[in-house]
Phosphate acyltransferase
Amino acid sequence: MRIALDVMGGDNAPDAILSGALAAADLLGPAGADAAADDAHTVVLIGDRGIIEEGLEEGGLAGDPRYEIEATTEVIGMAESPTKALRGKSDSSIVRMAELGRGSARGGAGTVSADKACDAIISAGNTGACVAAAQMQLRRLPGVHRPGIAVVLPTFHGPVVVCDVGANPEPRAQHLHQYAHMASVYAERIIGVEDPKVSVMNIGGEEEKGTPLVRETNALCRGDEGLNYVGYVEGRELFEGKANVVVTEGFTGNVVLKLAEGLSAGIFKLIAHEIFETDPELAMKFEPVVKKIYAKHDYHEYGGAPLLGANGICMICHGSSEPRTIRNTIRNAIAYQKSGINEAIVERLGCSDHARGAGR
């Protein structure tokens, strides 16, 4: 498997991104392994050649065949307009990353030769630019109307998949209906939930509540026998085990995601502070337990989120990604390919062989 990594994207780039890539060496198989082997993987580091070469040298991995360099001269900033940036910065790391992914999705078509094509793309850069570049280059899986970003939120009742959290802030009901199917496949293949329960995010449980979009999505999901649909879910119920999959539009989903992350981090800091203030010795005894619990609720441990519906593997990481976030995202990309999620999504959406070929 070949994985294209945008080294220049993210609040902590390039150092954190490059460090995370090098920390993933143990996931890539032994150096010099047969490229055709199932456990042989290559990370293509995209960005400033000098910075990448220096990082490989410092990490003791210079010349390691598991790492390749794809040099670029431009960077798309986190605050830049995605459309303008993609048009004006053709030699940016995000654009090149998507082009490498396109080569794999289209069998080496376009400007990318088959030997350089990548099976997965990863970036912690400008989310809008990453999503737009992926849609332009990888395109969509056959039958998919609009890709969506799916994240896994840990709860006391098990993980919950939320889709969408930022790719599609103004969707149609048909898009959310498809998210329900795609996120269900993801929950089955990655989390191991059999016949996941699906809900639509709403401000109440009553049928008449919600925006027209929410009510129309509810009707589509309720009338779909292929979904294990259990109705609306409120924000507080997200953590109570009512559903394994929750669908919503990208604006609300992104707010929910960041609120949950911020609240989780704040609660653990408050608990640690109060215990230390009460009894420093007790705090030292509880420290391993608190760290263990926090790790289960730390988004860095979960890595990047997939752009479900893209005709390829696209992982979107937090702008604040740390080295371990990137390492875990590389792990996620490998697991995603092995699980056959994209093939399952195409089958789930009922695409014919003819449509599958036309979609590429």
Observations:
- Residues 150-301 form a domain with the Isopropylmalate Dehydrogenase fold (CATH 3.40.718.10).
